[in-house]
Design goal:
282 residues, alpha+beta, CBS-domain, Uridine Diphospho-n-acetylenolpyruvylglucosamine Reductase, domain 3, 2 domains, four-stranded mixed β-sheet, 9 helices, 12 strands, globular
């Protein structure tokens, strides 16, 4: 008898909840939720940066590792038979903190090298019989299809910062870091080693080559390059270049505009960040 009453009570609560949802217009889908949040942003005058973080947090629920991973061809890896003289210049130049260590090829990842674990080599000097495998950390392997929210939770629980991504055949497809995931929520995380950190929007390499921030205002770009791009539809040169591609380009993709070659140097899954602009020779 008590079970019947409990069942009836739960049914009434469920029925009342459905009625209240209908009457109050509570969002039922992710799209409706986003529209509700954007409406709240205008009504409550919420900070735009906070809104971006909320939308980013919702977005990672639907994104997979393959959407943001660093592809295998762009991995900075160290070979297990290298000596410090072989890999220290690479570590210094790349300025990363973690490196996959491989055996015969990129499919054979045997561990992760932390740059800080090399400090004793600098302080005490290189031992005569140095073996890189002695200081490696275990590598974590994940499938391309893993959801980003699940990966972020795994990173937190295991206190891990890098994972090796494998494809359906068990081969290495790339790698992903905790920073890659967090950037989907909070936007770009720049540090002192980022190429475009200085305040100059346009940096001259030589008479024919320039490094240009994608957020450079079109008016400034036109003034520097004597071009005639319109600023009616876009405010930045990155918007013009994106329109030309017709999609979010990958690193090293190029296109021509007004006689200039635009090459994408850095980009994430949201926007272009840095461009190389090449002027033709006279």
């Amino acid at each position: 008898m008590s079970e019947d009453r409990s069942s009836n009570s739960q049914g009434q609560r469920s029925w009342l909840r459905n009625i209240m949802t209908t009457l109050t217009g509570e969002p039922k889908t992710r799209r409706e939720l986003l529209e509700f949040i954007r409406d709240a942003e205008q009504r409550l005058q919420l900070d735009a940066e906070a809104m971006n973080i909320i939308e980013g947090a919702l977005q990672i629920n639907e994104m997979q590792v393959r959407d943001i991973m660093i592809p295998r061809s762009q991995m900075v890896a160290v070979k297990d038979d290298w000596q410090p003289a072989d890999f220290l210049p690479l570590i210094i130049e790349s300025a990363h903190s973690r490196f996959p260590v491989i055996g015969e090829n990129s499919d054979e990842v045997i561990g992760i090298l932390l740059a800080k674990d090399l400090l004793p080599l600098i302080l005490k000097g290189q031992p005569e019989a140095f073996n890189l495998r002695d200081i490696l950390r275990p590598a974590t392997f994940i499938p391309e299809s893993k959801r980003l929210n699940s990966l972020l939770s795994e990173f937190r629980v295991k206190r891990n910062h890098m994972a090796i991504v494998v494809d359906e055949y068990g081969g290495v497809a790339g790698l992903v870091t905790i920073e890659d995931v967090l950037e989907q929520i909070v936007g770009d995380i720049e540090d002192e080693h980022d190429t475009d950190e200085d305040d100059m929007d346009i940096r001259v390499i030589d008479d024919h080559q320039f490094i240009v921030k994608a957020l450079t205002p079109i008016e400034d770009f036109n003034e520097n390059f004597r071009t005639h791009f319109s600023d009616e539809e876009f405010d930045t040169i990155g918007g013009i270049v994106m329109q030309r591609f017709g999609h979010l380009p990958d690193r090293n993709e190029t296109t021509m505009l007004e006689g200039l070659e635009f090459k994408v140097l850095t980009a994430d899954n949201r926007r272009i960040r840095l461009l190389q602009v090449n002027k033709p020779s006279a």
